Amino acid sequence: MDDLAADAFFNGKITVFQSRDGYRFSIDAVLLAAHADLRPGEKVVDLGTGCGIVLLMMAFRRPDIRMVGVEIQERLADIASLNVRENNMTDRIEIVRADIRELSSGAVSGPVDLLVANPPFRKARSGRVNPHQEKAGARHEVFITLPEVMAAARRLLRTGGRLVVVYPADRAAEVLAGMDRAGIAPKFLRTVHSRAGTEARLVLAAGTKGARPGGLRIAPPLAIYKDDGVYTDEVQAMFEGSGPMGPGI
Question: Quick one: which of 78, 110, 142, 186 could link to 207 by a disulfide (CB 3.0–4.6 Å)?
Fold first, then answer.
């Protein structure tokens, strides 16, 4: 994999290899990892793990948790496996190449306590689909749709298990409705803004399978940048491994 580039995170304590020209993760993954509520001894699964960055960040924060990353694209699954090996996390993280739509609980040694997902943001026929397969699969609903992610969450999660997702703000209603249809009661919502005072760009949403409806907690908004263009203190802390850990549902 000579076409990979290495990036350091958490003050150089994690090294992440990514394709120079293919799919590269964005800040969405950092926000998702920081808002995953990790508890000792739980089984955690990342649906559509890409290069494995969310798993690496979570495993760094909580070395006592076993995690599985699921990825359908062979090359991305290989890169994720490389990242797990290079960061000496093979005893904690397993990469499974599989189609989420056909994934069973047994394939990830379930049932699962916590699912995290950064699904493709755009519908398959909306806008220009990138000709590069890795980028297209990450950005458009080529391999998986939001309803299919929710159906997988219903299958994989134990009763009382949690789902945490990051998604575009203009599709927030679809996320909450999809959770409800899957028997996952929405319990947490946080809007993400480029800067304070601007419209929301993303939402972080979390829910609990089998919980009673109601009790949705709306957290204070998160701004990514200060007015001068640098990361806000909270987001910078996430990049350093010291930011928030989960919505607490």
Answer: 186
Amino acid identity of 123? K
* Dihedral angle computed from the Cα positions of residues 209, 201, 247 and 159, in that order, rounded to the nearest 10 degrees: 10
Tell the residue number behind the tokens 């995170």, with chain if given.
9
Contact 41/93 with Cβ under 8 angstroms?
no
Q: Is the distance from CB of 134 to CB of 75 less than 8 angstroms? A: yes
Q: Which two tokens stand for residue 176?
A: 């909450």
Q: What is the pTM of this model?
A: 0.89
Domain range annotation of the chain? 4-239
CATH of domain 4-239: 3.40.50.150
Nearest to 126, CA basis, from 71, 74, 170, 173: 170
Residue 16 β-bridge partners: 7
Residue 228 exposed, middle or buried by CB count within 10 Å (0-12, 13-18, 19+) = exposed
